[in-house]
C-alpha cells in the first residue's frame, strides 16, 4: 500500500468508530520519521482503545497491513506506527496538552473529508 492508501484506510476505519476531529498532516518534508500523522480524539479510554482495535483489525483484514508498533493502550494517548503513517488517538485533554497539530504547524494539512461518512448517509 502507498502511504496515501494507508492514510485513507486509517481515516475510514477511525470514522467508522466515530472518532472525533480526525486530522491528517503531511510531515515527510519536515521529518524522516514518517510521511503522515493522523490525529483523532476519542470520548473515553474505552473509546480510544476501540478506535485503535478497529484500525488495526481493518488494516490487517482488508489490506494485510499490521502496525510496526503500538504503545499507550492503557493511557489517554495511543500511538500506532504504520511506518509511513503514525496514528495518534487522544482523549480530548491529552490532545490539547500535547498539541501535535500546533507542534507540526509548518506541515501541510491533508483534506480527509472525502474519506469520511457524509452526514446525509448517517441519517438514512
Write the SSE topology.
Layout: H1 3-16, E1 20-26, E2 36-42, H2 45-63, E3 69-71, E4 77-81, E5 85-91, H3 92-98, H4 100-103, E6 108-110, H5 119-122
Parallel strand pairs: 2-5
Antiparallel strand pairs: 1-2, 1-6, 3-4, 4-5
Helix pairs in contact: 1-2
> pLDDT below 50 for ≥5 consecutive residues: which ranges?
none
Rg, please? 14 Å
Q: What's the N-to-C terminus distance?
A: 32 Å
Order of strands, widest sheet: 3-4-5-2-1-6
Counted beta strands: 6
Q: Which shape, going by the Cα principal axes?
A: globular
Largest sheet: 6 strands, mixed
- How helix-rich are the residues, as a percent range? 25-40%
Mean pLDDT: 93
- What fraction of residues sit in β-strands? 25-35%
Structure classification: alpha+beta
Your description of this structure?
This protein has 5 helices and 6 strands; from the N terminus they run H-E-E-H-E-E-E-H-H-E-H. It has 124 residues and is α+β, with helices and mostly antiparallel strands. It has a 6-stranded mixed sheet. The longest helix is centred in the middle third of the chain and has 19 residues. It starts with a helix and ends with a helix. The mean pLDDT is 93.
Task: Offer a few descriptive terms.
124 residues, alpha+beta, six-stranded mixed beta sheet, 5 helices, 39% helix, globular
Question: Summary?
Answer:
The chain is an alpha+beta fold.
